[in-house]
Amino acid sequence: MAYTRLDIDLTTGVSQKEALPDELICRYLGGRGLNARLIHDTLQKTHTDQVSAFDPANVIAMSCGLLTGTGAPSGARMHLNTISPLTDILGSSNIGGDAGTRLRSLGVFTVVITGQAEHPVWIHLHQDGADIHPAGHLWGLSTGETELALQKDLPGDSTVMSIGPAGENRCAFACIMSGNHHAAGRTGIGAVMGAKRIKAVVITGKKKLPKLDIAQKATVRVFTRKIMKAPLYPVFSKLSNSGFVIPIDEKGMLSTRNYSDITFEGAKKVDGSAMMKYVQKSVTCPKCPVHCKADIKISEGRYRGTTGARPDLEPIIALGPKCGLDDPEAVLYLHNLCNRLGLDVISAGSTAAFAMDLFNRG
Ligand code: SF4
């Protein structure tokens, strides 16, 4: 199989496809290794000095892995890297959902974005390459609103990855969202997208790759069965890792009130098991037997009308115990508010906890 990279220069508006050398694929297997190498090579070609996150010369690389879209369990992932605004060294984030599979269905393994657009844009990746469209009308919208506005005029087989106001304003921990559930959350990649004035990247492609042969299908079945027989499979498929708040608390390892304590009196209230009453249905990435995601809805009370995604363990801890918050509905509300604003929930909760701690200490 040939592996192709798609380069997009926002400054010139030029995009081009090129075959990736087999040597790079064999050496890095795609994902973050390939991204790191491509970012390194691109920066070396253009700059000798260190490049900071918001410099137009910074590079966003997104790569599939060898298993992306093949039907391998938990294989529907794509990896993103850039120079992070949090550290000014390589940032790294991984996103689920359909994006990786659709990208590979276009025959593209890696996208490398450089430069900076003069005005807000959205990028459309499709069978014939890439188009860059004005996005002034989308600037200021939440991630969900952006997705709705774009999907209206797109073919049905499209996935949107967008930033919210956080990324536009270069908040150092801004994320990229795709749907309610999937985030390239960590290390501020959304802020770099905002600095490049990219409101969204849309991928129009198929949700599955060409059929596997008999041996490949058998291998997929073996690993799917292994996952489904794992002792913790029933927990993960029902609660994701959100059900580990209580066990972590019992072990005295829960970061509570900005690490000032190791257990939390409200742990049972914000554990994933207590959030099951808000779950509408479970959601999955393509071909994943774990289906660890879930849609939630709050039907009454102060946060009535809140809909969106159930948080995983890390966002629950950041917004709940770390902030001393034991109200599961408040955690669900804040989680989905962060997603709409395009804020990485873990960093947002941790930052709030730090600020609360400083305030309490005068
Ligand atoms: S459904 Fe959950 S476990 Fe499966 S690939 Fe997506 S995020 Fe990973």
General description of the model:
The protein is α+β, with helices and mostly antiparallel strands and 362 residues long. It folds into two domains: 201 residues, Aldehyde ferredoxin oxidoreductase, N-terminal domain (Aldehyde Ferredoxin Oxidoreductase,  A, domain 1, 4-Layer Sandwich); 131 residues, Aldehyde Ferredoxin Oxidoreductase Protein, subunit A, domain 2, CATH 1.10.569.10. It is 34% helix and 21% strand. The protein has 14 helices and 15 strands. The protein has a six-stranded mixed beta sheet, sandwiched between helices. The chain has a four-stranded mixed beta sheet with strand order 8-7-12-9. A hairpin with a 6-residue loop joins strand 4 and strand 5. The mean pLDDT is 96. The structure holds iron/sulfur cluster. The site of iron/sulfur cluster (SF4) has 10 residues, from loops.
Structural class: alpha+beta
Name the helix and strand elements from N-terminus to C-terminus, one letter apiece.
EEHHEEEHEEEHEHEEHEHHHHHEEEHHH
CATH class of the largest domain: Alpha Beta
CATH superfamily of the largest domain: Aldehyde ferredoxin oxidoreductase, N-terminal domain
User: What is the count of DSSP helices, taking H or I runs of 4+ residues?
Assistant: 14
- Largest sheet properties: 6 strands, mixed
Number of structural units classed as domains: 2
Quickly give the CATH architecture of the largest domain. 4-Layer Sandwich
Which compounds are bound in this model? iron/sulfur cluster
Tell me, rounded to a whole number, the average pLDDT: 96
* CATH topology heading of the largest domain: Aldehyde Ferredoxin Oxidoreductase,  A, domain 1
C-alpha geometry = globular
Distance between the termini: 61 Å
- Tell me the β content: 15-25%
Question: Which regions are unreliable across 5 or more consecutive residues at pLDDT < 50?
Answer: none
Give the helix level as a range of percent. Answer: 25-40%
- Strand sequence of the main sheet, in spatial order? 2-1-6-3-4-5
Radius of gyration: 21 Å
Q: What is the count of β-strands?
A: 15
